[in-house]
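Hello,

Our lab assistant flagged a job as stuck in the queue for most of the afternoon. It eventually completed. Since we weren't sure the result was trustworthy after the delay, we are filing this so someone can double-check. Below is the sequence as submitted and the structure that was eventually returned. Let us know if re-running is recommended.
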Amino acid sequence: MDGIKNKVQALRLAQEEAETKAEELSAKVKVLEQENLAKEQEITSLSHKNQLLESEVEKLEADVTKHKGIGAQSDEHGRQNETLQRRLQLLEDEAEEADKNLREANEKLRQTDVKAGHYERKVQALEHEREQWENKHEEMSRKYEELQKELHNLTAELGNI
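-- returned structure --
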């Protein structure tokens, strides 16, 4: 009987541990989902910034072309052209950096998605395991009650003898 009580207690402890672990994993999934949302927002922001920079680059490239024709006529125009070219280079560098950041954010998002999927599968497995433990617990409780009745009946029969 002590063995059964110990097993029931062990099952209860295992069930509590499984529930605690499931709660922890659910919290981790929520955190990962929040991180995922933040990364998506960062990607959207970087994409928008990239579009703006590309638009600015196109605009500046048009300006450079315009100023090259005029720049041949005067030194002043030549200096303006050099300034615009430096600015264009800076913007292209920024655009390249933004592209690099976008690729990194996409990779991090992909990794986060993979991790979230992994944790979701873990949560499902733990929930399934918890359900199995609950079923075992119910079965053991039922068997325990049956054995208690048998013990009571046996004790009553022995008392009658």
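-- support follow-up --
The delay was a queue issue, not a problem with the job. The result is valid. The mean pLDDT is 88. The chain is about 95% helix and 0% strand.
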